[in-house]
Design brief:
By secondary structure, this protein is mainly α. The protein is built from four helices and no strands. It has helices spanning about 5-20, 35-40, 40-55, 70-75.
Length: about 80
């Protein structure tokens, strides 16, 4: 994501997931699996990825397999 630090990327991911789930971003563990542990649906994940693409001008479509577990740390490392 552009020239953002890993912490800035994590903050964006957490804030978007928190917004979609109506929870506090601070309650999202960096290693919690979005679907299994946080309760995020695949549609919410796609919404978050599209938001990141629009906000930061990056192409994330080919970088993720939504069948695989995703966490804040995994996304931030992409």
């Amino acid at each position: 994501m552009a020239d953002l630090s890993k912490d800035e990327i994590k903050k964006f991911i957490k804030s978007k997931i928190a917004e979609l789930m109506n929870i506090n971003a601070d309650d999202i563990d960096d290693d919690a699996e979005f679907v299994e542990q946080v309760g995020v649906s695949s549609i919410m994940l796609v919404d978050m990825l599209v938001s990141a693409e629009e906000e930061y001008g990056v192409d994330l479509e080919t970088g993720f397999d939504l069948k695989e577990p995703l966490t804040v740390n995994i996304l931030a490392d992409k």
